[in-house]
Every structure is written in structure tokens, then in C-alpha cells.
């Protein structure tokens, strides 16, 4: 059942990206995003085996504007690292590593909207689950996909 749901969701995201003539990073974010979100929701962890290749691939896809992409990655990841250092209970290390990778396709103009949208998605998840302990990875992934695709 989970496989069918994941395949349907992936198909839907790819169809939207195709209809909007989205950049290649949208397709990569859809695939990795679904898998990473499911892992994070179930196990409260984002494995390096997925986050690090995603970060490398996203940076590679932005090679035509490598300097700006790397700067955005450092700023977005650095902001998440600062939150992690100040309040470790609020954010896991996997979220920080994920944020570094997700900054590349966002670029500087979309970093603040991405932070706000990802926080909103995380708050909605907390409301749905009726829990104060929800992972932030799905919010980061959903916000990045939406902002780079739409």
C-alpha cells in the first residue's frame, strides 16, 4: 500500500513539474523528497546516504550559477546550524545537512520564503499529528519543491 501511495505521489509531482516546465532539480527534489520525508516521519532521521547525494546532485545541477548556489547553500544551511547550536532540541543534524543542500536550487531570493513556508508546513504537521515533536525535514523538502517548481 505504501509503495502505491508513494508512486502516485511521485507521479503527481512529476506531472506538475512537467506541466510547468520546471527545472531538473524539481524532479530530483520530488523523488528524494518523498523518500526522505517518509523516512523522517517514520524514524525521525534523515540518513546521510540520501541527504549528501541529494546535496551534491542539486549543487551539480546549479553549476551554471555555482557561486550564487554555493552562497545560498551556505547561508541556508548556516542558519539551520545556528538554530541547532542554540536550541538542539528544535532541530536535528539531518535537518541541517539537508538545508545545506536545499539552499542551492533556492538561491538567495527564495531563502526567507523557504524558511517561512517550511516552518508553516512543520506547524501544520504538528497540528495534524497532535504532537509537539514532529520532524522538520518534510517541511523543508515540501517548501523547496514548491518554490523551485511553481
From TrEMBL:
What keywords would UniProt list here?
A: Membrane, Methyltransferase, Transferase, Transmembrane, Transmembrane helix
Q: Name one GO molecular function term.
A: aspartic-type endopeptidase activity
Q: Where are the transmembrane segments?
A: 68-86, 106-128
The Prepilin type IV endopeptidase peptidase domain extends over 28-126
Write down the InterPro entries for this protein, in alphabetical order.
Answer: Prepilin_IV_endopep_pep (IPR000045), Prepilin_peptidase/N-MTase (IPR050882)
One Pfam match, given by its short name, reads Peptidase_A24
What are the annotated GO cellular component locations? plasma membrane
GO BP, one annotated term:
signal peptide processing
Q: Which family does it belong to?
A: Belongs to the peptidase A24 family.
PANTHER family membership: PREPILIN LEADER PEPTIDASE_N-METHYLTRANSFERASE-RELATED (PTHR30487:SF0), TYPE 4 PREPILIN-LIKE PROTEINS LEADER PEPTIDE-PROCESSING ENZYME (PTHR30487)
Name of the protein in its database record: Leader peptidase (Prepilin peptidase)/N-methyltransferase
Organism from which the protein derives? Lentzea atacamensis
Amino acid at each position: 500500500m505504501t509503495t502505491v501511495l508513494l508512486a502516485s505521489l511521485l507521479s503527481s509531482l512529476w506531472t506538475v513539474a512537467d506541466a510547468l516546465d520546471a527545472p531538473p532539480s524539481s524532479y530530483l527534489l520530488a523523488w528524494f523528497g518523498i523518500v526522505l520525508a517518509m523516512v523522517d516521519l517514520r524514524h525521525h532521521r534523515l540518513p546521510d546516504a540520501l541527504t549528501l547525494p541529494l546535496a551534491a546532485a542539486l549543487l551539480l545541477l546549479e553549476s551554471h550559477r555555482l557561486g550564487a548556489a554555493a552562497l545560498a547553500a551556505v547561508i541556508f544551511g548556516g542558519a539551520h546550524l545556528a538554530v541547532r547550536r542554540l536550541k538542539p532540541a528544535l532541530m536535528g543534524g539531518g535537518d541541517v545537512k539537508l538545508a545545506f543542500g536545499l539552499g542551492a536550487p533556492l538561491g538567495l531570493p527564495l531563502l526567507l520564503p523557504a524558511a517561512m513556508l517550511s516552518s508553516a508546513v512543520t506547524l501544520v504537521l504538528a497540528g495534524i499529528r497532535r504532537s509537539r515533536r514532529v520532524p522538520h525535514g518534510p517541511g523543508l523538502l515540501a517548501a523547496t519543491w514548491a518554490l523551485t517548481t511553481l
